[in-house]
Amino acid sequence: MIQQSDIDSVRDVYAKDALPRVTDQLNSKAKGQKLALVGSGVQATTKADHAVGDEVGGFTIAVKVAGDGVVFDEKAVKEMLKTALQRKIPSGTQLTNNANTSYEPIDAAADGHITLNGHASGFYTPIFIETAIRSHLKGMSPSKGRAFLQSLPNVVDARVTQSPFGLPWLPLFSSRITLKVQEVSSNSSP
């Protein structure tokens, strides 16, 4: 007599190797893109030539392993999240390079539509117009240059160094002045 456990054991043995193989095939078809599985992902289904409870000497079980997926450009999703975050910061500021983006696929449909739940967080700093700052610094004394840099909004510390040796004034050509803006991260969580 055929029992459900007979059918399930055959499906489980076959699916053990077939499910990862089909998932790998789907991923290989994604060609560098991100794959979101549709529904429950890759599944194994069975179809027996006799019903559970039939008394037979033997029977045949067909095991079908199939799955659908939606492929999307992960880089484009992260860029969209970063762009959305950029729109929320005040004008005259810019995002720092360490913005964090993450997402989870919520729903993927066989017709190619996908719903993602995205998250973006980061810090912003004022935009320093370096050409204008360098032009203002040319010919100043190092102490006045440091005082000017300290007076800029959101500047915590300013250092003026000269090389290969110090002079009583900064270069007369702004192209000879190099600015290095260093972001200072906060110890508190955002």
What this model shows, in words?
By secondary structure, the protein is of the alpha+beta class. The protein folds into three domains: 4-71; 74-125, no CATH class; 128-176, no CATH class. The chain is built from four helices and eight strands; from the N terminus they run αββββαββββαα. A two-stranded antiparallel sheet has the order 1-4. It starts with a helix and ends in a 39-residue tail after the last helix.
Secondary-structure blueprint of this entry?
Layout: H1 4-29, E1 34-37, E2 43-48, E3 61-66, E4 69-72, H2 74-86, E5 93-95, E6 100-108, E7 114-121, E8 124-126, H3 130-137, H4 142-151
Antiparallel strand pairs: 1-4, 2-3, 5-8, 6-7
Task: Give the N-to-C terminal Cα separation.
Answer: 65 Å
| H/E topology pattern | HEEEEHEEEEHH
Helix content: 25-40%
Rg over CA atoms, rounded to whole Å, is 31 Å
Number of domains: 3
Unreliable residue runs: none
Strand order of the largest sheet: 1-4
Task: Indicate the mean pLDDT.
Answer: 90
Beta-strand content bin: 15-25%
Structural class estimated from helices and strands: alpha+beta
* Main sheet record: 2 strands, antiparallel
Shape: rod-shaped
Q: What's the tally of helices?
A: 4
Number of strands: 8
